[in-house]
Amino acid sequence: MQTLDLHELKADEAIKCFLNEYENYQKTREAFRLVHGYGSSGEGGKIMRRVRQILQENSDKLKYSYGEDIDGNPGYTIIYPNQKMAPFTDLLAQEILGFCEVSKVQGKILSKFRKHGDSNIIRTLKNLEKHKMIKAGTKGIHKTWTKL
Q: Above 70 in pLDDT, residue 42?
């Protein structure tokens, strides 16, 4: 079984690498070990959380086994690709969805993802709303966003 090691990469780079390599493995339907690391927070790192979110969202297209269920090591996941994953792999959108698990005011979202630029963030929020993945609301005078 081949191994794809992401744990030394930054989260954005790791997710891009995973999505690209998944396609290659999917063509041959070859299972592979994805090393994402566990993170130093004690709650799982960004890479692990984001990879697992993507896997769960595409569970109808692949199978997977977490390392902790195999040998107690949460730093990897075995992936059995069957079909192409859903094309919705916009990393900013994925990050926003993860951040908005609990309702967030728009100002907090803009602040958290400011490196992407306000107009790009707002465009992404509206696109997520259009695809019924997030809903807009209000809290007092502030606009809020919550993942559906």
A: no
pTM summary value: 0.64
Integer Cα distance of 76 and 122 in angstroms? 34
Which residue in 24, 7, 71, 107 sits closest to 99, CA to CA? 107
128 Cβ contact list (under 8 Å, min separation 6): 93, 96, 97, 134, 145
CA distance 32 to 138: 44
CATH number, domain 2-81, options 3.40.309.10, 3.30.1370.110, 3.30.750.24, 3.50.50.60: 3.30.1370.110
User: Taking the alpha carbons of 31, 23, 58, 60 in that order, is the dihedral positive or negative?
Assistant: negative
Q: Quick check: 94 pLDDT over 60?
A: yes
Non-local CB neighbours of 12 within 8 Å, separated by 6+ positions: 91
C-alpha distances out from residue 100 to 54, 76, 87, 116, 146, Å = 16, 26, 21, 17, 5
* CA-based nearest residue to 33, from 72, 54, 3: 3
